[in-house]
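cache lookup: miss for this entity combination. No prior model stored, computing from scratch. Input as submitted by user K.M.:
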Amino acid sequence: MRPAARLLAFLAVAALAASARTAAAEPVKLVKPEQYKARIVAPKKGRVLLVNFWATWCDPCREEMPALVAAAKKFPAKDVAVVLVSVDSLKATPAVEKYLAKEKVPFVCWQAKSHDPQNFVDAVDKEGWSGAVPYTLVYSRAGALVAKLAGPQSEQAFGDAVKKALAGGT
Amino acid sequence: MKKLLVVSSVLLLAAAAAPAADLKIGAAAPDFTLPSASDGRMVALKDLLAKNRAVAVIFVATKCPVSNAYNGRMAALGKEYAAKGIAVVGINSNKAELAPEVAAHAKEHGFTFPVVKDEGNKVADAYGAQKTPEVFVISPKGDLLYHGRIDESQDDPKGVKSPDLRNALEAILAGKPVPAAETKAFGCTIKRV
């Protein structure tokens, strides 16, 4: 193998390894209600963003996760980002990380940190969210909230929401 | 302070079959008569209302970690307010949690109030209950006085800052309006048929 080919092969393997690390080994980070927009939404401006709220003890959330993973794979990362926010108890952080690793969920996951869960719900979507999970919010490239998906969604529903957000410009 | 930092939020759930009912504060609470999970004795809301200054209906579960985090608080509330003339009744509407399991769970956690089994989740549907735990407090006239959570602190019973259910019950006993009559319940989805 020529040096250039070896370099390319090495870079490809390194890229795959980096992706895998992102998927399974990244620790869950905590987010307070007042930090939600600045830490989760704002950094993804320029891409359509799906924020999926879930919990390890929520059966519909776990059942929905493969659809979210499959839907995300159909869009280039430069256009679409997916972020998880766990509403599990902070005591359950190890269980959250264990689940994500076991299921090879390739998304960054935050965990809500709020003594009063109502504060977090209200900071995210006071009018539209009862606190029930799963719940998914779709933001435009400009960071505007453009869709609310309550309850478990199919791969097609996630895909359609992303396409609509991408088509919406801004 | 440290405890505060350790405590997190847990919301939750409900997704699938969203109940049609949307019971508003002041609306008439649906009557029900359901069998006690422990002994099959029928428990009628109207009977409880006739003998008490209010009734706190709490939708509960045996396997939900959020509901289970409140077991001790529910047991304590049941004992304390029974003596003050407010009855507590637990309703288990989860299809997979059968009466013997519900009865054993209630006994294990010292529930002195009845826990009834809502087969077919008809009462949960009538109330629009989605989560466990989720509380509905009803006046002797049958009107809804409070709907929502027990308090805001799932993980730390000693760190409660907003004892919403207790505040509601104390207001009712004092003959005053409930200060926060509607809060957002958080917990596990009621598993319906």
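stored under new cache key. Chain A touches chain B through 31 residues (CB under 8 Å).
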